[in-house]
Amino acid sequence: NMVMSFRVSDLQMLLGFVGRSKSGLKHELVTRALQLVQFDCSPEVFKKIKELYETRYAKKSSEVAPPQPQQHRSPEALSIHSSYDRGSTVARTSISTTNIDYPALYGKYLNGLGRLPPKVAKPEVRLVKLPFYTTLDELLKPTELVPQSNEKLQESPCIFALTPRQVELIRNSKELQPGVKSVQVVLRICYTDTSSPQEDQYPPNIAVKVNHNYCSVPGYYPSNKPGVEPKRPCRPINLTHFMYLSAATNRITVTWGNYGKSYSVGLYLVRQMTSAELLQRLKTIGVKHPELCKALVKEKLRLDPDSEIATTGVRVSLICPLVKMRLSVPCRAETCAHLQCFDAVFYLQMNEKKPTWMCPVCDKPAPYDQLIIDGLLSKILTECEDADEIEYLVDGSWCPIRAEKERSCSPQCPILVLGSSDVNGLLPTPNGNGENGKATADVVDLTLDSSSSEEEEEEDEEEDDDDEGPQPKRRCSYEKGLVSAC
Length: 486
Fold this sequence. Notes:
Low-confidence stretches: 63-112, 405-486
CATH topology of the domain at 133-222 and 230-273: Jelly Rolls
Shape: elongated
Keywords: DNA-binding, Isopeptide bond, Ligase, Metal-binding, Nucleus, Transcription, Transcription regulation, Transferase, Ubl conjugation, Ubl conjugation pathway, Zinc, Zinc-finger
Number of helices: 13
InterPro entries: PINIT, PINIT_sf, SAP_dom, SAP_dom_sf, Znf_MIZ, Znf_RING/FYVE/PHD
Family: Belongs to the PIAS family.
Distance between the termini: 106 Å
EC number: 2.3.2.27
Largest sheet: 6 strands, antiparallel
Mean pLDDT: 74
Radius of gyration: 36 Å
Helix content: 25-40%
Strand content: 15-25%
Catalytic activity: S-ubiquitinyl-[E2 ubiquitin-conjugating enzyme]-L-cysteine + [acceptor protein]-L-lysine = [E2 ubiquitin-conjugating enzyme]-L-cysteine + N(6)-ubiquitinyl-[acceptor protein]-L-lysine
Structural class: alpha+beta
């Protein structure tokens, strides 16, 4: 608090006293001084700070004890001190509602985001890396939200300032959409758990205020199933559009519900990526060479000594299971056990809107950093344009599956056989009028009575799932044509 009240000349004297650089703008001098207080506040340094402070306010303290510089405020006025982290590029100040014991400033955090810095190394809260956010700077390490009372609704404020370099990065970044910059200051919240990197998780009654405005926080996905609670996407909260992009300090207040679980918050300068950018990065560094993919195919089809059935091949569809369209960029996770691919273009677009990162083939996790583009299937797609399915063989080669589709689109051979002379006189007379006028029905009944034809019909129905219409109707039309031909 003493340091925050210093003028430029006082800051220069203090920094000169400890041999630090005295050049720069005021907010840069304040940053160095706060770092000094936080990490190197020896008795001599504290004595110098107190001396400079008392000299500055000597005239006001001639009659009584030195008044506080914020004496004109109410007793509940908020006082500010530093929580500067070593190695960071920005000084951060925190707000407290308690009176400050100046000799105890060194190594203590007093506000709602506060905690005692560890004397020995201990695990810290870490947040998972998000593919669509590239971290440029850590403005505030994940810091626990500490309740200040027994009330269910808590407020935890903090103050920080951006450096000129960070402001420049934001101002010069492109717009993802009108008013939304790609370089952003985001707030991330997670459970206070050091056992593993944590996913974003909002506390109950979450609200975030930047300076004088409330930020938009993602709402709940509606649930149409009875008894199923709606889910809420917990994403980084963009604070940029309400921040002062200058040397001025920004005040952020997190309102949260205290219901027993502990949460931590962190502030980051990030660059938000688009699905097109992630696709280009994947094409650059994530392509698996065709020969490696071929070796994987041979390994998958290698005969298992414990198995009585030898695998001669495996079929792979060239249609994406996500959008039922032909694959353009065949992709899968290296952790997946299957050879079937999905389209990277649509997979990234879907996760950009609603991030789940689950494989659409096996429903297992398929995170971005595990994705590969199948070089062999990419090559096959260019060489095989008239088939929607291929089969991998044991030697790593492949062949297109066309025969079944072609057969299903032409007059069926079994029908022609049924129209031959050995149908025991059940065909109608040449004039097409059978006995009792039921010629067509007789033919259909004959087809249904043949066990071999019934099996073929069932197979044809399965094969025709992707064709234009159900096979039984097409079969019937061919039968009628055969009758009139006789």
